[in-house]
Design a protein that fits this description.
single chain; mainly beta; 4-stranded antiparallel β-sheet; 0% helix; globular
Amino acid sequence: VCSSDLKVISIDGIVHPESAFTTRDGRVFISEIGRIGKKGDGRILEVFTNGKKKIIASGLNDPKGLLVEGSTIYVTDVDEIKKVSFDGKVSPWIGPKDFPRKISFLNDLTIDRNTIIYVSDSGAVVDGKRRGGAIYRISSTGKVSLLVDSANDPNIQAPNGLLAFQRGFLMVADFTTGVLSQIGRAHV
């Protein structure tokens, strides 16, 4: 749909933006990777409709998926999930040792009915393609468990984007297979 009322705003000075999250009240947050592989130059930004931006947090490594729940921003940052407050305080939350198996590349986050958080691990690069990924669920108490991987679903090789919708359904976009999967009540 094309509209002559559409207004496009460019925001300069963002290096490798990765993910965006819009809150119910219209706030827009962006994860900025910075230079890929360079530790400490990643940021979380809030962007405004007038093109201005505000740095919420800096000093991250390669932040990717974002989820805002209440006054907390959850962000995947390489091999861990961090909590970021709106005033910029960054705290570790879920680290590599909290997962039931070795993780490679944490990517996206989503939440189901404000209770269970899901996170994708896009796996490692093997012969030029990402493989060995998985999707994990994190309970409200912070316990991490495996939801699905290629051993129980061949379409899940390098899960990237996640979206929880309806009760008990999760949409998964896989980077390697190109398949958009719906994981239903049997898994979730």
